[in-house]
UniProtKB/TrEMBL annotation, chains A, B:
PROSITE patterns: PPASE_MYOTUBULARIN (PS51339), TYR_PHOSPHATASE_1 (PS00383). Substrate binds at N43, K44, A45, K46, N66, I67, C128, S129, D130, G131, W132, D133, R134. SMART domains: PTPc_motif. This is Phosphatidylinositol-3-phosphatase. The lineage of its organism: Eukaryota, Metazoa, Ecdysozoa, Nematoda, Chromadorea. Keywords: Lipid metabolism.
Length: 347, 347
């Protein structure tokens, strides 16, 4: 259904029917439209539309606000934290920033998708006005809760490449790479907001991810630094075909994979189960370790403690112990078979 | 200085001078009076007083509110969380409860004591109107930050016995053990508030404590259950001399030491350093894992995950690996000396 005239597209309707039929369990295709219903209706005036009266499809609006609202909310949030915290009015100012409300509506949308795929075994179609901002947020947050592979470092790299880089998130425009117009209305911290949502999941499931928040923080730093080609330009075509970033720049993921130790989560225990983040207001927190790290009065000591190399390094300790066991095993074996002199490798 | 007449006590002044002189580094004895200054002044009308014009002593009021204010604040806090969370007004209601403001003033007071003892090498005297509520909160929170021994399970037991049980915190009256008068003005969750403050420290220093929040939650449950004699009655005299609780009841700490595994912190790395909790408003959090555990919509999945036996059990894993190494070492040794048949204990 597009425009005020309500034109229908038979091809589109058939396409959606085919998507539904691809899943034998699917009784009805759930369409999640990320926008507030009122915005979607207003967009009809500009020739836009949404799926009204499609056969075997139900449409839900997720009430997630657009890039302009997100930009303003983050400005208000950071002014609660930097350069100093107004201790007397902190909660009031945090409330008024509405930042956590936006985080909540995205997480609620992602949980809705997870529930429909995991519990109801239905297919879900997610879209928005364009498909490269809120849509990418929702699909990647749903996928990382559904599939444990995306919670490994390799899997996460693939998820970001797939849902953000290849799908056409306009990194260049949203961050304003190489642009002076800091008031440009196209700038918006959509990817930052996605990382915040993911941080909420990491925090609620401390042993489900191979990586810690350090990977998210490092990724956001490199997003703004432009050291790697991964997050340059506005689409994969411009990045790879027009600008040959794959030949002329290094990938952010090469750096990550070479410095895995820095990002390893010592609490990681791979689990197959699907995660359901709790989007309730009192389960959400402010990501001060990222937004307020320049304010020494805000940063919590636990952040430093985790960051400190060797501070909480269980993974390494375990590896050393396992190495020692292997060496001892070999010694025992060679002594039993008389193939080598007897030596004790541990002391 | 007591009463409106401002009577002085030479003995008290000498006593404080002696305390100061016991520390060769001490230039001036810091007296921390837990009360708001205005309350201390009002108490003069009832014959109370505080240390005005003592030689070589400086007096600071910590502005911590009394048992009645604490009781009302906790009622307001829990009504934000139970039976359901009003998602739209959560931050506003949390702000209005003032609970975190009270937590903040106690932590600020404790940090002041820690700073003066650790950094300034001065002596500190802490008191309040009576000495068994806010005083015990401050001294025990300062000691646990200053001395790593109190961060072990044994040390923590000694700290609670010393600063709360022996010092005369009126557990019976504050909790209302065996009393019907639930409106009794002497009831107040002072010990709960202390545990909340301690939880903030645990959370900010995830590897500094041998125990997890499970020990705090279990302690609070047993405080209300009266299963153990540890927290019965209003003083050590009534508990041990009048009621022989040491002969007729089991100590809570016997239970804890027999079930250490339940409370062990897998992240624990003993450290000698002094802790400084960050009392900034945005470093504080609501202890939903305790206050809201009866609300399934609030409880965060991470709580379950930590509680799950074997969920994140690094300590045990490490112990098993070390046992295996010891067994292999013995095998190698006995094979080398020819004192036993060669067997491999690992596979």
């Amino acid at each position: 259904m597009t425009g005020l005239a309500g034109k229908r597209s038979a091809d589109d309707e058939t396409h959606l029917l085919n998507i539904m039929n691809a899943n034998a369990n699917c009784r009805e295709l759930l369409i999640l439209d990320a926008r507030p219903a009122v915005n979607a209706k207003l967009n009809k005036a500009k020739g836009g539309g949404y799926e009204e009266n499609y056969t075997n499809a139900s449409l839900t609006f997720l009430n997630i606000h657009n890039i302009h609202v997100v930009r303003d909310a983050l400005k208000r949030l950071t002014s609660c934290l930097i350069p100093r915290v107004d201790e007397k009015n902190y909660l009031k100012a945090l409330d008024e920033s509405k930042w956590l409300n936006h985080i909540q509506s995205i997480l609620e949308g992602a949980v809705k998708a997870v529930f429909n795929v995991d519990t109801e075994k239905q297919s879900v179609l997610i879209h928005c006005s364009d498909g490269w901002d809120r849509t990418a947020q929702l699909t990647s947050l749903a996928m990382i809760q559904l599939d444990p592979f995306y919670r490994t470092i390799e899997g996460f790299a693939i998820l970001i490449e797939k849902e953000w880089c290849s799908f056409g998130h306009k990194f260049g425009e949203r961050i304003g790479h190489g642009e002076d117009g800091y008031n440009d209305g196209e700038r918006s911290p959509v990817f930052v907001q996605f990382c915040d949502c993911l941080w909420q999941i990491l925090r609620q499931f401390p042993s489900a991810f191979e990586f810690t928040q350090e990977l998210l923080i490092c990724m956001l730093d490199e997003l703004y630094s432009c050291r790697y080609g991964t997050f340059l330009f506005n689409s994969e075509k411009i990045r790879l075909m027009d600008n040959k970033c794959d030949e002329t720049t290094i990938s952010f993921w090469s750096y990550v994979l070479e410095h895995r130790k820095k990002f390893n989560n010592p609490m990681y225990r791979p689990k197959k189960k699907v995660l359901y983040v709790n989007p309730s207001f009192c389960a959400l927190q402010v990501w001060t370790d990222y937004y307020a790290r320049s304010n020494p009065h805000v940063i919590s000591p636990s952040h430093e403690e985790i960051q400190q190399p060797g501070g909480v390094d269980f993974l390494n300790e375990k590896k050393q112990l396992l190495d020692e066991i292997m060496a001892l095993d070999e010694t025992v074996h060679s002594m039993a078979t008389g193939s080598a002199p007897s030596t004790s490798s541990s002391s």
